[in-house]
Amino acid sequence: MQKFDLAKVTAEQKAKWDDHAETYAEVILSNDPRDHASQQVLEAFTRHGQLPAGSRVLDLASSFGRPAVPLARALPHVSVISTDLSPVSAPLVRKYAAAQGVANITAQAADAQDLADFSNNSFAAVTCTYGFMFMPDLDKALQEANRVLQPGGLLVATVWGEVENCQNAQAFQGFAKALMGPKFSMNPPWPLTDPHALKQHIQAANFEDVKCAEYSHNFQFQLDDFVRFMVGPHGQFEPMLDKLQAAGNSNIHQQAPQALKDVCAARGWLQKDVVHLNNTALLFTAVKP
Q: Strand 219-222 and strand 274-277: pairing?
């Protein structure tokens, strides 16, 4: 039985990403040029076999267009549809695609939990990098992915690994603790770090041949960009900072950048104005029977 208001939670997520989308795109594009996740997705496609000319690929939770744009560039014989809950993302995808000289891609807003715009059995592959872990109703999203896939179609998804092997997560938790003090308590920043749990969800959505593999996705952020990403205007922690300010900490926005730098320095992540974050991620592949 669903224990939350799906429409409300989804609307809250949409509002968050409407606000964060542009900053997220600018910082990640500037600081993650190797794009490990898209490389993993492309390798999964190679292992699966060549998609026929004219095939369609649906990318869920694309944000500014990863892995959608790299896929379209590497597979010019297919059409890629990039989707994201936030409509702010679509023009960012188009901008990224134009910069890469990619024309075989379209972008639109779509909720992965309700892909009503797309017909049954209409895609050769569905991809989702670092998206399923944020979806309020994961099972519904996986069921929708299965519905729109053709028989024999490929699902490729990535999620972050366990917190102890994911310095991205440690940075979120460490900074939140620095802000909130010794009484800090926070669940992991994202669920689904257990590969067995996600595998069970995928199988329950009527997928077969479910496989999981670990890979490394490491970041090297310029310090100023990382501060902007985390605590600047439209940053990841801006809503928390606003709440702390409303609760009486009038200087929290001014204090936050130095607090974040101190956390990075104390953990040994900050080296010559570059924040190094090493992460283990999980790649899942599955096939619709």
A: antiparallel
* pLDDT tens readout for residues 119-154: 999 999 999 999 999 999 999 999 999 999 999 999
Give residue 271's region: left, alpha or beta (phi > 0; psi -120 to 50). Answer: beta
Q: 280-287 and 208-216: which strand pairing?
A: antiparallel
Cis peptide before 67 (omega within 30 of 0): yes
Written as six digits, the tokens of 117 are 């715009």
Euclidean distance between CA atoms 64 and 129, whole angstroms: 12
Tokens of 161: 């690994």
Residue 246: C-alpha distances to residues 179, 204, 235, 242 (Å): 14, 44, 18, 6
Considering the entire predicted model, what is its pTM? Answer: 0.95
CA distances (Å), origin 115, targets 12, 41, 71, 219, 269: 19, 21, 21, 32, 40
- CA pair distance 119, 217, nearest whole angstrom: 34
